[in-house]
Design a protein that fits this description.
The structure holds 2 protein chains of 2 kinds. By secondary structure, chain A is mainly α. Helix content of chain A is about 75%, strand content about 0%. Chain A has a two-stranded antiparallel sheet. Chain B is globular, with a radius of gyration of 24 Å. Classes of the chains: A mainly alpha, B mainly alpha. At the A-B interface, helix 1, helix 3, helix 4, helix 5 and helix 8 of A face helix 1, helix 4, helix 5, helix 6 and helix 7 of B.
């Protein structure tokens, strides 16, 4: 095989992947940072305004509200989904029929479109026809009935159960496959040493799959920062920005109020925050590992 | 051996595992309840939403489904979803397989850099590209065409696809390609006749992940498509719900119809889907 021909093959073979990926993923991210310096309505002239958009973001109460809501989502996912999925994985990682059935049940929402998930939950929370309020009635808990999605104090928390419901399956499967990869001898050795149950989980299984847990945490963070569909479908960020997320705020700024520059600046901020959070979590989880 | 499912042994232990399994069964039922509710409610009349929120419909209104199918133009939406999902799937599989073949079997400068370049893509929040992509598409006159979805779906599927395929191809022993070269197979032949058939398990993982992602996507379709005839399934369902807000049975029938294909696919390829999700976990 001559070197020149294989060089040409390498370049031609990589070109389509690199070009499509660069054009539709990489360049837009860089462009977004650039557009962030302009005041532009999408049509007509754009005007260079330096850091004004970023300064505005810094002083914008809606932005901080959106960021806070995003942080609520991140915390709910990391401290809700990960422990729940770990617990379920420990119980369900063998393969009897009931275990297989439960695994499939927990995983099923993963194959649905977020649009459908959002709509199902919108109906569950519906003040008149929603089964949640019917259920509370039936249990004699009328006073607990709420306007789940239109009360600005609780709306953001109402969005957490659908979030957990739809993604727990993913982490469950990841943890199960990690647990199944632990060599059998380690369990045998633990048994001889008399470790079992919770003890075995904490001192053997958990440290052994810690790398996977770290990956799951990163996924959780970047996944929660990507949340858009669910909130867009269920509340559109309302009432009065109570459920606004960074992504919905970006969407509304750009495509509802036609502030392309400002929307781009928010996009860039989302990328930066996401990298920052992932970096921090990496640092925190790897430090924890060293300590233990 | 003590496993949670093992009911033999000490009575206290048996009691404890009984509780665990009861709780789990309840959890499983709770998880499935929204699906059950969706399907039975799709047969109901509006009055029954108030009178029997939990019960089965008195009369099973099958016509909800035919009415929903017609008034929501679900057929067109199915077709559009199929075109963009299959289109981006074919493109992804071919492009990613070729790139992964090269990244896993050749040594060259920039290789590490190119790998990093792709892996970083798995962490980029998709929505942060919406605004610039919208502008790019507008300039390329791609808005309101199938390409406006096929190309970004492909681009966003590439990192995971390359990640999964490269890992798999790296594990294929070197002897095989040496044997192929001795038999006079060229690079292209090695790729199409040997590597592709050998990586079918990894390719099916990528197929499932990319297909589900494209089929279920909402945000790209929302921004890049506003022509009714080009709307994909999630977009059509969301629009339909906005228009028929108070006709509950009809809306739920449309939703049920839209989830049937993925649920059937899931039930058939369950093991593969789960494996695929694990392999592609880094995508999130």
């Amino acid at each position: 095989m001559n070197a020149l021909r294989s060089r040409r093959f390498i370049m031609l073979g990589l070109a389509p992947a690199v070009v499509i990926y660069a054009l539709f993923v990489f360049v837009p991210v860089v462009w977004s940072a650039y557009y962030g310096f302009f005041n532009w309505s999408g049509i007509g002239e754009s005007k260079y305004i330096g850091l004004d958009n970023y300064v505005e973001i810094w002083h914008d109460s809606v932005f901080w509200r959106a960021l806070k809501n995003n942080v609520i989502f991140v915390l709910a996912s990391v401290f809700g989904q990960i422990p729940l999925a770990l617990m379920l994985a420990v119980i369900l990682h063998k393969s009897n029929p009931l275990q297989r059935f439960l695994r499939s049940a927990v995983f099923l929402p993963m194959v649905l479109s977020t649009v459908v998930i959002g709509m199902i939950w919108q109906y569950i929370y519906h003040p008149q026809i929603g089964i949640l309020n019917f259920l509370l009635d039936a249990l004699g808990l009328e006073s607990w009935k709420l306007q789940w999605l239109s009360d600005d104090k609780i709306a953001i928390f109402s969005l957490v159960p659908p979030l957990l419901w739809s993604f727990v399956g993913l982490y469950l499967i990841i943890f199960i496959s990690a647990l199944q990869n632990i060599p059998g001898e380690i369990h045998d050795a633990a048994k001889i040493d008399g470790a079992s149950g919770i003890r075995k989980l904490v001192s053997i299984s958990l440290p052994m799959i810690w790398g996977t847990v770290q990956v799951a945490i990163i996924l959780c963070i970047s996944g929660s920062l990507k949340s858009f569909d669910l909130v867009y479908i269920m509340t559109k960020g309302g009432p009065a920005h109570a459920t606004e997320l960074l992504a919905t705020y970006m969407y509304n700024s750009t495509f509802t109020t036609y502030r392309y520059g400002f929307g781009s600046a928010i996009s860039t901020t989302i990328v930066l925050i996401s990298l920052l959070l992932i970096g921090t979590s990496q640092w925190a989880t790897s430090r924890k590992k060293k300590e233990s | 051996m003590r496993t949670p499912g093992n009911t033999s042994g000490h009575p206290v232990r048996r009691f404890r595992s009984g509780i665990v399994w009861t709780l789990l069964t309840v959890y499983g039922i709770l998880t499935l309840y929204p699906f059950y509710w969706l399907v039975i409610s799709a047969f109901k009349t509006n009055e029954e939403f108030y009178s029997k929120p939990f019960g089965l419909p008195g009369k099973w209104n099958v016509e909800n489904f035919s009415n929903a199918w017609e008034s929501s133009k679900l057929g067109t939406a199915f077709g559009n979803s199929l075109i963009v999902s299959v289109g981006s799937l074919i493109l992804t599989l071919f492009i990613a397989a070729l790139a992964s073949f090269i990244l896993s079997r050749f040594q060259f400068r920039w290789k590490g850099l190119i790998m990093t370049f792709f892996v970083v893509g798995m962490l980029i929040p998709i929505h942060s590209t919406l605004v610039p992509l919208f502008i790019l598409m507008k300039q390329m006159s791609l808005l309101n065409t199938y390409w406006a979805l096929i190309l970004p779906y492909t681009a966003f599927a590439l990192p995971t696809a390359i990640f999964v395929l490269t890992a798999y191809l790296t594990s294929i022993p070197r002897d095989i390609e040496e044997a192929a070269f001795i038999d006079g197979t060229g690079l292209w032949g090695l790729f199409t006749r040997i590597m592709l058939p050998m990586s079918v398990p990894a390719l099916s993982t990528v197929t499932i992940l990319s297909f589900l992602h494209a089929w279920n996507d909402f945000s790209f379709a929302l921004v890049f498509i506003n022509k009714t005839g080009l709307k994909t399934l999630p977009l059509a369902i969301a629009n339909f719900a906005d228009g028929y807000q108070t006709d509950y049975g009809l809306t739920l029938a449309a939703m049920t119809l839209s989830v049937i294909p993925t649920i059937i696919l899931y039930l058939v390829f369950q093991e593969q889907v789960m494996k695929g999700m694990t392999a592609g976990a880094v995508k999130g």
